[in-house]
Design brief:
It is a single chain. With 315 residues, the protein is α+β, with helices and mostly antiparallel strands. Helices cover 54% and strands 19% of the residues. It is built from 8 helices and 11 strands. Strands 6, 7, 8 and 9 form a 4-stranded antiparallel β-sheet that branches. A hairpin with a 7-residue loop joins strand 10 and strand 11. The longest helix is centred in the C-terminal third of the chain and has 70 residues. The protein is rod-shaped and about 185 Å long. The protein starts with a helix and ends with a strand. The relative contact order is 0.07.
Protein backbone atom coordinates (compact mmCIF):
# COMPACT_ATOMS: atom_id res chain seq x y z
CA UNK A 1 0.00 0.00 0.00
CA UNK A 2 2.85 2.30 0.82
CA UNK A 3 4.47 1.56 -2.47
CA UNK A 4 1.27 2.42 -4.35
CA UNK A 5 1.07 5.79 -2.58
CA UNK A 6 4.69 6.55 -3.46
CA UNK A 7 3.98 5.67 -7.06
CA UNK A 8 0.98 8.00 -7.16
CA UNK A 9 3.05 10.84 -5.71
CA UNK A 10 5.74 10.28 -8.32
CA UNK A 11 3.16 10.27 -11.12
CA UNK A 12 1.54 13.46 -9.87
CA UNK A 13 4.93 15.18 -9.54
CA UNK A 14 5.92 14.13 -13.07
CA UNK A 15 2.63 15.39 -14.45
CA UNK A 16 3.12 18.73 -12.69
CA UNK A 17 6.65 19.14 -14.09
CA UNK A 18 5.50 18.10 -17.55
CA UNK A 19 2.88 20.84 -17.50
CA UNK A 20 5.51 23.43 -16.70
CA UNK A 21 7.79 22.01 -19.37
CA UNK A 22 5.01 22.18 -21.94
CA UNK A 23 4.20 25.74 -20.92
CA UNK A 24 7.89 26.69 -21.25
CA UNK A 25 8.07 25.08 -24.69
CA UNK A 26 4.95 26.93 -25.76
CA UNK A 27 6.44 30.22 -24.56
CA UNK A 28 9.68 29.51 -26.46
CA UNK A 29 7.75 28.65 -29.60
CA UNK A 30 5.71 31.83 -29.34
CA UNK A 31 8.85 33.91 -28.81
CA UNK A 32 10.66 32.24 -31.70
CA UNK A 33 8.93 34.62 -34.09
CA UNK A 34 10.68 37.62 -32.54
CA UNK A 35 13.86 38.31 -34.42
CA UNK A 36 16.45 41.10 -34.43
CA UNK A 37 17.85 42.14 -37.81
CA UNK A 38 21.33 43.72 -37.70
CA UNK A 39 22.19 46.99 -39.43
CA UNK A 40 24.01 45.17 -42.22
CA UNK A 41 21.14 42.76 -42.84
CA UNK A 42 17.58 42.56 -44.09
CA UNK A 43 15.06 39.85 -43.32
CA UNK A 44 12.54 37.95 -45.41
CA UNK A 45 9.78 35.66 -44.13
CA UNK A 46 8.67 32.34 -45.52
CA UNK A 47 5.25 31.33 -44.19
CA UNK A 48 4.71 27.64 -44.63
CA UNK A 49 7.43 27.80 -47.31
CA UNK A 50 5.85 30.71 -49.20
CA UNK A 51 7.33 34.23 -49.41
CA UNK A 52 5.33 36.78 -47.42
CA UNK A 53 4.49 40.00 -49.27
CA UNK A 54 3.38 40.94 -52.75
CA UNK A 55 6.01 43.62 -53.50
CA UNK A 56 9.70 43.94 -52.72
CA UNK A 57 8.89 46.61 -50.12
CA UNK A 58 6.56 44.20 -48.32
CA UNK A 59 8.86 41.20 -48.72
CA UNK A 60 12.05 42.83 -47.42
CA UNK A 61 12.27 43.91 -43.77
CA UNK A 62 14.94 46.38 -42.74
CA UNK A 63 17.18 46.37 -39.64
CA UNK A 64 15.54 46.29 -36.22
CA UNK A 65 13.01 44.15 -34.38
CA UNK A 66 10.98 41.89 -36.68
CA UNK A 67 7.85 40.03 -35.59
CA UNK A 68 6.77 36.79 -37.24
CA UNK A 69 4.74 33.74 -36.40
CA UNK A 70 6.45 30.95 -34.44
CA UNK A 71 9.17 28.94 -36.12
CA UNK A 72 6.85 26.06 -37.00
CA UNK A 73 4.86 28.46 -39.18
CA UNK A 74 7.31 31.18 -40.31
CA UNK A 75 10.94 30.88 -41.31
CA UNK A 76 12.97 34.10 -41.09
CA UNK A 77 15.95 34.36 -43.43
CA UNK A 78 18.55 37.06 -42.79
CA UNK A 79 20.50 38.29 -45.82
CA UNK A 80 23.73 40.35 -45.31
CA UNK A 81 23.10 43.05 -47.93
CA UNK A 82 25.32 45.61 -46.19
CA UNK A 83 28.49 43.54 -46.25
CA UNK A 84 30.90 43.00 -49.09
CA UNK A 85 30.89 39.31 -49.91
CA UNK A 86 33.99 37.51 -51.15
CA UNK A 87 34.42 34.29 -53.08
CA UNK A 88 37.74 32.70 -53.98
CA UNK A 89 38.27 31.81 -57.63
CA UNK A 90 40.69 28.90 -57.40
CA UNK A 91 39.55 26.84 -60.38
CA UNK A 92 42.57 28.06 -62.36
CA UNK A 93 45.05 28.06 -59.50
CA UNK A 94 47.85 25.60 -58.95
CA UNK A 95 46.10 23.61 -56.21
CA UNK A 96 48.38 20.63 -56.62
CA UNK A 97 51.79 20.17 -55.08
CA UNK A 98 53.72 23.43 -55.73
CA UNK A 99 56.76 21.37 -56.70
CA UNK A 100 54.78 19.37 -59.27
CA UNK A 101 55.55 19.98 -62.91
CA UNK A 102 52.66 18.08 -64.50
CA UNK A 103 50.39 20.73 -66.00
CA UNK A 104 47.46 18.34 -66.36
CA UNK A 105 47.33 17.94 -62.57
CA UNK A 106 46.71 21.65 -61.98
CA UNK A 107 44.12 24.26 -62.86
CA UNK A 108 45.23 26.70 -65.53
CA UNK A 109 44.27 29.29 -68.14
CA UNK A 110 45.35 29.28 -71.79
CA UNK A 111 46.19 32.76 -73.05
CA UNK A 112 45.66 34.17 -76.52
CA UNK A 113 49.25 33.41 -77.50
CA UNK A 114 48.88 29.78 -76.35
CA UNK A 115 50.70 30.10 -73.05
CA UNK A 116 49.62 28.62 -69.72
CA UNK A 117 49.07 30.56 -66.48
CA UNK A 118 47.90 29.74 -62.96
CA UNK A 119 45.49 32.37 -61.61
CA UNK A 120 44.26 32.73 -58.05
CA UNK A 121 41.74 35.53 -57.56
CA UNK A 122 39.20 36.95 -55.11
CA UNK A 123 35.84 38.25 -56.34
CA UNK A 124 34.04 40.88 -54.26
CA UNK A 125 30.31 41.54 -54.63
CA UNK A 126 27.25 42.96 -52.87
CA UNK A 127 23.78 41.50 -52.63
CA UNK A 128 21.39 43.87 -54.40
CA UNK A 129 18.23 41.73 -54.33
CA UNK A 130 18.03 39.58 -51.18
CA UNK A 131 14.92 37.73 -52.39
CA UNK A 132 16.59 36.55 -55.60
CA UNK A 133 19.83 35.77 -53.80
CA UNK A 134 18.31 33.80 -50.93
CA UNK A 135 15.43 31.98 -52.61
CA UNK A 136 15.95 31.56 -56.35
CA UNK A 137 19.30 29.75 -56.17
CA UNK A 138 20.24 26.95 -53.80
CA UNK A 139 23.99 27.71 -53.91
CA UNK A 140 24.56 31.30 -55.12
CA UNK A 141 28.24 31.29 -54.18
CA UNK A 142 28.91 28.23 -56.31
CA UNK A 143 26.99 29.82 -59.18
CA UNK A 144 29.04 33.01 -58.95
CA UNK A 145 32.28 31.07 -58.83
CA UNK A 146 31.30 28.97 -61.84
CA UNK A 147 30.25 31.99 -63.92
CA UNK A 148 33.38 34.01 -63.14
CA UNK A 149 35.64 31.01 -63.74
CA UNK A 150 34.05 30.38 -67.13
CA UNK A 151 34.25 34.03 -68.17
CA UNK A 152 37.87 34.22 -67.05
CA UNK A 153 38.70 31.29 -69.30
CA UNK A 154 37.15 33.03 -72.30
CA UNK A 155 38.72 36.43 -71.62
CA UNK A 156 42.19 34.91 -71.27
CA UNK A 157 42.06 33.70 -74.88
CA UNK A 158 42.05 37.29 -76.13
CA UNK A 159 44.97 38.45 -73.98
CA UNK A 160 48.67 37.71 -74.32
CA UNK A 161 50.68 36.20 -71.52
CA UNK A 162 53.01 39.20 -71.27
CA UNK A 163 50.05 41.51 -70.71
CA UNK A 164 48.56 39.32 -67.99
CA UNK A 165 51.89 39.19 -66.21
CA UNK A 166 52.55 42.93 -66.49
CA UNK A 167 50.37 45.87 -67.47
CA UNK A 168 47.07 44.40 -68.68
CA UNK A 169 45.82 42.89 -65.41
CA UNK A 170 43.36 45.71 -64.71
CA UNK A 171 41.90 45.60 -68.22
CA UNK A 172 41.58 41.81 -68.00
CA UNK A 173 39.84 42.04 -64.60
CA UNK A 174 37.40 44.69 -65.86
CA UNK A 175 36.58 42.59 -68.93
CA UNK A 176 35.85 39.59 -66.69
CA UNK A 177 33.68 41.71 -64.38
CA UNK A 178 31.61 43.16 -67.23
CA UNK A 179 30.92 39.84 -68.90
CA UNK A 180 30.26 37.99 -65.62
CA UNK A 181 27.86 40.69 -64.42
CA UNK A 182 25.86 40.39 -67.64
CA UNK A 183 25.47 36.63 -67.13
CA UNK A 184 24.60 36.97 -63.43
CA UNK A 185 21.93 39.55 -64.27
CA UNK A 186 20.37 37.15 -66.75
CA UNK A 187 20.40 34.44 -64.07
CA UNK A 188 18.63 36.88 -61.70
CA UNK A 189 21.07 36.14 -58.91
CA UNK A 190 20.59 39.53 -57.26
CA UNK A 191 24.26 40.48 -56.90
CA UNK A 192 26.51 43.26 -58.15
CA UNK A 193 30.23 42.65 -58.65
CA UNK A 194 32.47 45.24 -57.01
CA UNK A 195 35.92 44.06 -57.97
CA UNK A 196 38.21 41.23 -58.96
CA UNK A 197 41.56 41.08 -57.21
CA UNK A 198 44.31 38.76 -58.41
CA UNK A 199 46.16 37.12 -55.55
CA UNK A 200 48.64 35.60 -57.97
CA UNK A 201 49.18 35.17 -61.69
CA UNK A 202 52.09 32.83 -62.20
CA UNK A 203 53.45 30.58 -64.93
CA UNK A 204 53.74 26.81 -64.42
CA UNK A 205 56.58 25.73 -62.17
CA UNK A 206 58.29 23.95 -65.06
CA UNK A 207 58.50 27.22 -67.02
CA UNK A 208 58.85 29.75 -64.22
CA UNK A 209 62.50 30.58 -64.86
CA UNK A 210 61.85 31.26 -68.54
CA UNK A 211 58.84 33.43 -67.72
CA UNK A 212 60.86 35.38 -65.17
CA UNK A 213 63.53 36.03 -67.78
CA UNK A 214 60.92 37.28 -70.25
CA UNK A 215 59.34 39.45 -67.57
CA UNK A 216 62.72 40.90 -66.62
CA UNK A 217 63.45 41.64 -70.29
CA UNK A 218 60.08 43.36 -70.63
CA UNK A 219 60.73 45.50 -67.55
CA UNK A 220 64.17 46.40 -68.88
CA UNK A 221 62.67 47.33 -72.26
CA UNK A 222 60.10 49.58 -70.62
CA UNK A 223 62.82 51.16 -68.51
CA UNK A 224 64.94 51.89 -71.58
CA UNK A 225 61.96 53.36 -73.39
CA UNK A 226 61.21 55.59 -70.42
CA UNK A 227 64.82 56.72 -70.21
CA UNK A 228 64.85 57.43 -73.96
CA UNK A 229 61.67 59.45 -73.66
CA UNK A 230 63.13 61.46 -70.78
CA UNK A 231 66.31 62.07 -72.80
CA UNK A 232 64.24 63.14 -75.80
CA UNK A 233 62.17 65.51 -73.69
CA UNK A 234 65.40 67.14 -72.49
CA UNK A 235 67.46 67.15 -75.69
CA UNK A 236 64.81 68.08 -78.27
CA UNK A 237 63.80 71.37 -76.61
CA UNK A 238 67.48 72.33 -76.15
CA UNK A 239 68.22 71.51 -79.79
CA UNK A 240 65.18 73.46 -80.93
CA UNK A 241 66.24 76.46 -78.85
CA UNK A 242 69.76 76.28 -80.29
CA UNK A 243 68.36 76.00 -83.82
CA UNK A 244 66.09 79.00 -83.24
CA UNK A 245 69.06 80.99 -81.95
CA UNK A 246 71.19 80.08 -84.97
CA UNK A 247 68.38 81.06 -87.34
CA UNK A 248 67.90 84.33 -85.50
CA UNK A 249 71.63 85.11 -85.54
CA UNK A 250 71.80 84.24 -89.25
CA UNK A 251 68.83 86.51 -89.98
CA UNK A 252 70.50 89.38 -88.11
CA UNK A 253 73.82 88.80 -89.90
CA UNK A 254 72.02 88.62 -93.23
CA UNK A 255 70.25 91.90 -92.56
CA UNK A 256 73.50 93.61 -91.55
CA UNK A 257 75.41 92.34 -94.59
CA UNK A 258 72.62 93.35 -96.91
CA UNK A 259 72.67 96.83 -95.42
CA UNK A 260 76.46 97.10 -95.86
CA UNK A 261 76.22 95.74 -99.42
CA UNK A 262 73.49 98.22 -100.29
CA UNK A 263 75.56 101.10 -98.86
CA UNK A 264 78.64 100.02 -100.78
CA UNK A 265 76.62 99.57 -103.95
CA UNK A 266 75.13 103.04 -103.59
CA UNK A 267 78.61 104.45 -102.91
CA UNK A 268 80.06 102.68 -105.96
CA UNK A 269 77.22 103.84 -108.21
CA UNK A 270 77.70 107.43 -107.08
CA UNK A 271 81.47 107.22 -107.64
CA UNK A 272 80.95 105.60 -111.02
CA UNK A 273 78.66 108.42 -112.15
CA UNK A 274 81.20 110.96 -111.00
CA UNK A 275 83.95 108.99 -112.74
CA UNK A 276 82.03 109.14 -116.01
CA UNK A 277 81.98 112.94 -115.79
CA UNK A 278 85.62 113.51 -114.77
CA UNK A 279 87.77 110.45 -115.01
CA UNK A 280 91.25 111.85 -114.24
CA UNK A 281 90.25 113.75 -111.15
CA UNK A 282 88.25 110.88 -109.72
CA UNK A 283 91.00 108.37 -110.46
CA UNK A 284 93.61 110.53 -108.72
CA UNK A 285 91.37 111.15 -105.71
CA UNK A 286 90.44 107.52 -105.28
CA UNK A 287 94.04 106.47 -105.60
CA UNK A 288 95.13 108.91 -102.92
CA UNK A 289 92.30 107.89 -100.57
CA UNK A 290 93.07 104.19 -100.88
CA UNK A 291 96.78 104.65 -100.46
CA UNK A 292 96.16 106.89 -97.44
CA UNK A 293 93.84 104.34 -95.91
CA UNK A 294 96.38 101.56 -96.43
CA UNK A 295 99.21 103.66 -94.96
CA UNK A 296 97.06 104.51 -91.95
CA UNK A 297 96.50 100.84 -91.29
CA UNK A 298 100.21 100.21 -91.73
CA UNK A 299 101.20 103.23 -89.65
CA UNK A 300 103.14 104.87 -92.52
CA UNK A 301 103.11 108.40 -94.01
CA UNK A 302 102.87 109.80 -97.55
CA UNK A 303 104.88 112.94 -98.30
CA UNK A 304 104.13 115.00 -101.39
CA UNK A 305 106.96 117.47 -101.96
CA UNK A 306 106.18 120.46 -104.19
CA UNK A 307 107.09 119.65 -107.74
CA UNK A 308 108.62 116.36 -106.68
CA UNK A 309 107.76 112.68 -106.57
CA UNK A 310 105.57 111.47 -103.67
CA UNK A 311 107.45 109.52 -101.03
CA UNK A 312 106.19 106.91 -98.56
CA UNK A 313 107.70 106.58 -95.10
CA UNK A 314 106.99 103.42 -93.09
CA UNK A 315 107.72 102.98 -89.40
Amino acid sequence: MIKSEHFVVIINTAIRYCKWLIIALLVLICCSGIRVVDNSEVGIILRMGRLVGDTREEQIHGPGLMLAFPYVIDEVIKVPVGKVQEVEITTHANTADPSATAIENTGYLITGDENILHVNATLKYRITDPVQYALYHSAPTDTIQGVVSSVMTGCATSTGVDGLLTDQKDAFAQDVIDQAQTILDKLELGVSIIGLEFQSITPPNALRDQFNQVNAAYVEKETKIQEANQYREKVVPDAKAEADKLVSDASIAQSQRLTVAKDKTAEFNGLYEEFQRNRDVVRERVFREKVTAILNKMGGKLVLPEGGTPKIFLP
